[in-house]
Design brief:
This is Lipid droplet-associated hydrolase. The chain is an alpha/beta fold. The protein contains eleven helices and nine strands. About 40% of the residues lie in helices and about 15% in strands. The protein starts with 6 loop residues before the first strand and ends in a 6-residue tail after the last helix.
């Protein structure tokens, strides 16, 4: 399977038939990041996927694999967050959103340099949508379409989960939780499986690996604290500039978005009705759609890509 020159295949990680486990070497101090790559023989576009928190791209394999099966003309690069993947540690990189935005921008630059004639589409989930907006701000003309899934781009601390959980992310609790995390290894596997009884085995394996990596836990909790501080009012000027290039997917019940869905909808409807295509998923799809509902969301993304007029740029 062909790899672009800026990716290195991971020989110690299993690569499935559809995709390759690889790494992207960032500029210092960001270090290396875990990536997954789905190639295309004759690609018509490149998809850059930015995950939520924790930023483990392995959670999204069913979602992205279904998208690739649906649209074999897409090459897809899923880029994990710095320090979130067990085994990928960059001690000098801060656990903040700005670092993740810089990393995603570096990946976008590499894609544009390698595939200058192909449009780049960013698909992102949760806080990945906020990171996507920072990438759009840094590279205004380089992204042709942005698909934001369950986007946490407005006042996340005011959402139901933000109000309920933000205290867990404030120092020194992330450090304390990280120090206590080895206790998880003492818990019977059957007990963990009972807590997540609806999760498929492959997703449970990703979670188990994450819970056994104290540094990854600390990175995720610390970044969550930065989210509570910095994801505030909508960046209305940026959204206006990119209104025709944005699609948004909400779920019927999302405690990480809450009433902010109404804020986002109202902004776009007041500014220019219909300028942004907003879809609400069927009942039963949760914020963490990637666990059991990746195919449904991938189908919607494929439809948006198929109907977008890339010639407008």
């Amino acid at each position: 399977m062909h790899l672009p020159p800026f990716l290195t295949r991971l020989s110690d990680q299993p690569s499935q038939g559809l995709y390759v486990n690889c790494e992207f070497k960032h500029e210092d101090p960001l270090g290396k990041a875990h990536c997954l790559w789905w190639s295309a023989d004759l690609p018509t576009a490149i998809v850059l996927f930015i995950p939520g928190n924790p930023g483990l791209v392995d959670f999204y394999v069913p979602f992205l694999s279904h998208l690739h099966r649906t649209r074999k003309d897409l090459a897809i690069l899923a880029h994990a967050h710095i320090n979130h993947t067990p085994g990928f540690r960059s001690p000098r990189a801060k656990q903040i959103l700005a670092v993740q935005a810089k990393a995603a921008t570096e990946v976008l630059d590499a894609l544009r340099k390698t595939y200058p004639a192909l449009p780049v589409i960013i698909i992102s989930h949760s806080v990945g949508a906020y990171i996507t907006l920072q990438v759009l701000k840094a590279r205004e003309s380089e992204v042709r379409l942005a698909l934001l899934i369950c986007p946490t781009i407005s006042n996340i601390a005011h959402t139901p989960n933000g109000k309920r959980l933000s205290w867990l992310f404030r120092p020194p609790l992330p450090l304390l939780i990280t120090a206590l995390s080895p206790i998880i290894r003492l818990l019977p596997g059957a007990f963990i499986s009972t807590l997540f009884s609806e999760w498929p085995p492959a997703q449970m394996a990703v979670l188990s690996t994450f819970l056994n990596s104290p540094y990854s836990i600390f990175a995720a909790l610390s970044m969550a604290h930065d989210e509570m501080k910095n994801i505030q009012a909508l960046d209305t000027e940026l959204l206006r500039r990119h209104q025709h290039d944005i699609r948004i997917f909400f779920t019927s019940v999302d405690h990480w978005v809450g009433e902010q869905e109404d804020v986002i909808r109202q902004f776009f409807e007041e500014f220019e009705p219909g300028s942004v295509k907003i879809t609400r998923g069927i009942d039963g799809i949760p914020h963490a759609f990637c666990i059991n509902h990746g195919e449904e969301v991938a189908t919607q993304c494929a439809q948006w890509i198929a109907t977008h007029d890339f010639s407008l740029h």
